[in-house]
Structures are given as structure tokens and as C-alpha cells.
Amino acid sequence: MAALETIGPLMAGMKARADMAGLACEALNRMFQKEQTELVAQALRVELVPYLLRLLEGIGLETLDNPSATKAQIVKALKSMTRSLQYGEQVNEILAKSSVWSAFKDQKHDLFISESQTAGYLTGVSTPSLLAASSPLRGGL
């Protein structure tokens, strides 16, 4: 993933579809937890950190059902980026200049994150679907 341009297109998608920012922030959080230096370098190149800080201010999260959970994902992603051995100091310098970061950096955000914002997307519903009830394999319908 780090060998491809990943962060720029993801950020462009977040700007184009603000209603999907929560999912994108969860993806960013998970990607940066893997400590891939090249992803942090990409984030710095495309100015992801200032963009995420604007989201933390609430700008661009108005259409989300749960902006608190998205903000929690953003904080966790930014904290993961600061742990980069090669680029963490650059990320810290950007964060240190932000007034909004000082309000979020020491808070515990796990309370705002559910098991997963994408839970159920792949597993589907647990009750029988209407499609299964009208299946030609069921005969007699």
C-alpha cells in the first residue's frame, strides 16, 4: 500500500464525499497504526495533517451522523503519525502550531469509537433477507 499513492486519493475522496469522511478517517487510523513511513511521507506531501486539523475543528463534518467518533479516529491517526521515526517530528511541529490540537491531544477518545464504524457492511444482516425468501431455489413462491 505504501508503494502506491494512497493518501492523496483518499483525501480527495474525503473532500468529494464529506458524508464518507468517517469511513476514510477510520481507514487512515488503521493505515497509520501499521507504522509505514512512506504513508506518513505521503501525508506530509499532500498536507493531510492541516486538513485533518480543520476536520477536528468541525469544518466538513456537518453531514456526519457521529462526528465525535470521526474526530476520535482523526486524533488516533495523528498520534500514530507522530510515532514515525523518520517523519514524526515534522508531524509534531505542525501539530504544535495548532490551537485545536492542544484541545484534543490529551483526551481519551476510545469512548467515542464503537467496535467499528463499518461493522456489518461485510457480514450483512443477521435476519433472512427478502431476496432469500423470494429465491427460485425455495420453490412454491
Automatic annotation (TrEMBL):
One example of a Gene Ontology biological process annotation: receptor-mediated endocytosis
Domain of life: Eukaryota
InterPro entries: GRV2/DNAJC13
GO cellular component: endosome membrane
Signal sequence bounds: none
Protein name per UniProt: DnaJ homolog subfamily C member 13-like isoform X2
Organism the protein comes from: Notothenia coriiceps
